[in-house]
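Re: beginner question about structure tokens

> Can someone show what the tokenized structure looks like for a real chain? I only ever see the sequence side.

Sure, here's an example I had lying around. Input first:
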Amino acid sequence: MSATVAAALKKIAVYILTDKKALKTVLGIVLGIIIIIIMPIVAIVSIFNGNIEIDTNRLQTMVVENLSAEEQAKLQFVEDTMYGIETAMKDAGHTGRIKEAQVLYVLALFDYANQGDFTDKLVSCFQKNQTDEQLIAAVNSAFGTQLTVDDFSNVMKNIRAVTIDISDYTDPTTKNNLDLVKWAVHANESKWGYVYGTYGGVLDETLLGGKISQYPNEVGAYEDFIRQHWLGGRTADCVGLIKGYGWYNTETAHTEIGANGMPDIGADTMYENASEKGTIDTIPEIPGLAVWHEGHIGIYIGNGEVIQAANTNAGVIRTPIGQSGWTHWLKIPYISYKESE
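And the corresponding structure tokens:
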């Protein structure tokens, strides 16, 4: 396959895995194209090579007209496998990493999907607090593949930059503690970065430039590191991780500053505004509480673990509650609290 064709097919893969409309309307058909290429290559390249917007309706029509019964069966198998991966990842507690597993299937594992234990074997490669290097090593060991970290990370960078998965939220129409936990887990598993003054948006050049001007010490002093590690992905600071959830509109997938009664405040003010709080040694077992010490705040996710946007070098991390010097807990006053599922 030529480099031009490979680049075109990668563009299709990234588009399909990051666009909700495409996932719903052309998932089975177009993923089939990516994998088994039932259309003439020239047709794909003519549509997707270069800076041409993808017309999913046109693509779907073109493909359907060229499908045989055998090809339809293959495409149905692709779609079934994709949904099977989604279900198995959710069951294993890796909801925030479904796209990673699907990308691995697209990039390297299509030929293995006929194995009866394929999905279980793929899911078993995923572990908590795992780097891309560790994941790819596990996949190559399990399947005998030679996938490189760069190939995987380059595709995932695009996907992580735009995707927020709310498919398993308990109630996306409200702001509540249980979905705050899922938001935080997703941010951790999707490897969000830390940039002071941000709240979960995609860090592009415009946003980075604005934050450098606004915070020359907190952001400008780390510009080289941020460009190398966080540019193009989602970022937040400690309280921004909480505010980003409060401000995120699940209907429009846009962030609206000040929405849902959550003001644009810092960690200390959020603690001061809480009416229910206490010292850390009295923290109740309620996922979605915040934990706090002067100048810093994190999200308690239950079972003795905290997710926090820690610092520029670390990004969004998961740590035991005994670390980071938390002194107090609080109920965030701008969300509702429900019992665990």
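Each token stands for a local structural state, so reading them left to right follows the chain. Residues 89 and 213 are 41 Å apart (CA to CA).
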